[in-house]
Write a structure and sequence with these properties.
This protein has a single domain, classed as Cyclophilin (Beta Barrel). The chain contains one helix and eight strands, in the order E-E-H-E-E-E-E-E-E. The chain has an eight-stranded antiparallel beta barrel with strand order 1-2-7-5-6-4-3-8.
Length: about 150
């Protein structure tokens, strides 16, 4: 249309993305493995696009294990400070991931974007140290080796 200018600014967070809701990933350490089911958030889709990843575990106040990502995920998401054992979330200021293995606190001290949940096994992360690997769970139940 002649004479009209498009003044809309492109917002990268408004672009469409493919939901990964229900996708399962494995968190693997030397001694344990936890299966996490991702939610349908943009941040979860961003994380899935980065997999597989290897990171160093960081103890977070005796209730969560953190991992620093190589780059930021989408932060245009609802945040919360409430958590349950097994919750898996993202702290954008890190940019860090966290899996909560104990419920000794009423809530976190930072806002976290929920990414998913582990139904079982999160408690086994309490004594884990060193390197952690995040990768997809294949349809056969084995991890994928595609890097």
């Amino acid at each position: 249309m002649a004479g009209q200018q498009n003044t809309a600014v492109s917002d990268p967070f408004e672009s469409t993305y493919e939901s990964v809701e229900g996708t399962q990933i494995k968190m693997i350490t030397e001694n344990t493995q936890v299966v996490i089911t991702l939610n349908g958030s943009r941040a979860a889709a961003d994380l899935a696009a980065m997999l597989p990843l290897e990171m160093t575990l960081i103890e977070r106040n005796s209730f969560a294990k953190g991992m620093t990502l190589p780059e930021h995920l989408s932060s245009a998401e609802a945040t919360t400070r409430e958590y349950e054992i097994g919750d898996f979330g993202y702290w954008s200021a890190g940019p860090d991931l966290a899996i909560f293995y104990d419920d000794i606190y009423e809530q976190t001290i930072v806002d976290v974007i929920p990414l998913g949940h582990a139904e079982t096994g999160a408690e086994t992360m309490a004594n884990e140290r060193g390197t952690v690997r995040l990768e997809f769970v294949s349809e056969e139940g084995d991890s994928t080796e595609n890097e």
